[in-house]
Amino acid sequence: METNSLNLFIEINNLEFVFVVVESNDNNYSKIIFKQKIPIQGIKEEKIFDYDSILNTFKEKINSLEKKLNFFFKDVVLIIDNFDCSLISFSGFKNLNGSQLMKENITYILNSLKLKINEVENKKTILHIFNTRFILDNKEMINLPIGLFGNSYCHELSFFLINNNDYQNLKKILSECNLKIKKIISKNFIEGASLIKSNSN
Q1: How far apart are CA 138 and CA 153, in angstroms?
Q2: SS3 of 51, please?
Q3: Mean pLDDT by 10 residues, the chain (201 residues)
Q4: How many CB atoms lie within 10 A of CB 163?
Q5: Are 77 and 128 in contact (CB under 8 A)?
Q6: pLDDT of 38-93, one tens digit each?
């Protein structure tokens, strides 16, 4: 039997809050069933300056949405476009000495780089992690070279970061609306992915 689910998205950009509800089913079919834009308030110069104003706006909108749809949301996907976010790249290395590159080697590099980010950028929270480059024996590979043999491997990752205070404020506002943050997505990332999808060159 096919089941439908409702997902809540909130976009925060420079001009407005955008509330979107997407209905999806088991066949991966999705459609927007609700969308409303509200002039932004409580955020100025990429910072939250009026917590109560944002909280009241969110509570009012989410409560009315749940009544309208007869559905209670448990989590939300945030799409942000006006916070002070940053991007930083790090490379991790593994000496293979002629052995095979294994998934465990990639996991080790990933965890090591995440720890390094937490040391260097301890006032920021990781939002996205991107695989940027894979280099096996000084040759750049198109895909992750798991299973190939070599002497040295370099894996470059790019980290998209948000200030801890901004993240915690957003988390607390939504918690008071009885919502957990399922994911935070940069609007720039969505626009970039859309551009790549529409133009393979």
Answers
A1: 8
A2: helix
A3: 76 91 84 92 83 93 94 92 81 93 93 91 88 93 93 92 90 94 80 67 66
A4: 18
A5: no
A6: 998 888 877 888 989 999 999 999 999 999 999 999 999 999 886 777 888 899 99
Structure tokens at 111: 């965890």
The answer to whether 150 touches 175, Cβ cutoff 8 Å, is: no
Contact 159, 90 (CB under 8 A): yes
Please give the structure tokens belonging to residue 106.
Answer: 């990639």
Name the nearest CA neighbour of 92 among 77, 105, 75, 73. Answer: 105
Cα angle for residues 13, 130, 147 (degrees, 5° grid): 160
Decide if 161 contacts 126 (C-beta within 8 A). yes
Give CA–CA dist 65/19, Å, rounded.
9
**Residue length of the chain:** 201
DSSP letter assigned to residue 118 = H
